[in-house]
Design brief:
heterodimer, A: about 70 residues, mainly alpha, two-stranded antiparallel sheet, 3 helices, 2 strands, globular, B: mainly alpha, 7 helices, about 5% strand, elongated
Chain lengths: ~70, ~140
Amino acid sequence: MTLIEEIITEMAIDNVQCRKVDVLENIDYAVQLGILATPAIVINGKLIFTSLPTKAKLLTTLQDYLNSKR
Amino acid sequence: MGKYRISGVTQQTGLSADTLRYYEKIELLPSVSRNASGVREYSDKDISRLRFIQRAQKMNFTLTEIKDLLTMRENPQKARKSVRLLTQQKLKEIEEHLEELTTLRNELTLLINLCGASKDGCPIIDSLDETKSKNKRQK
């Protein structure tokens, strides 16, 4: 289980979908998103993390994002 | 007014003799005058025209476009609108090319970074070798 999947499970939220993308298979899409290295985390089509964040940072970012959508 | 042989012009401009003859053949240069022995003698006006061609090439204009520009050069005041349109078109082409190059640069950067982080195989070769890449994905 990836860090992001772990957090989604912990947060028990059902309106967040997580998708793992193989950048080699989807290189055009990855470049379009601005990904220049992996790991990278994109939230709603926007590149948010260009390296692996800490669990706390990722959790805060997801919470802020979900709150802004309410 | 100077008269220059082809070797002198190649030295002055850096263009090869073949190129100079080619420009004359496709009428980028009007027929170059010849001396009694039939040897080409380029004038200062020819040199100025060649310099114009070289500068236009550096701006990425094609030889066909340069031919048009040379005609426009004869009457710049009257040709301003046409020159502007041609240049705007060139700018648009360059901007499109720049966008393609930026995407390519980002793609190559990503591949290099993936390659550096890869424990097995080579992502760069895999992405170029589509069949191999597809087979690997199916496994």
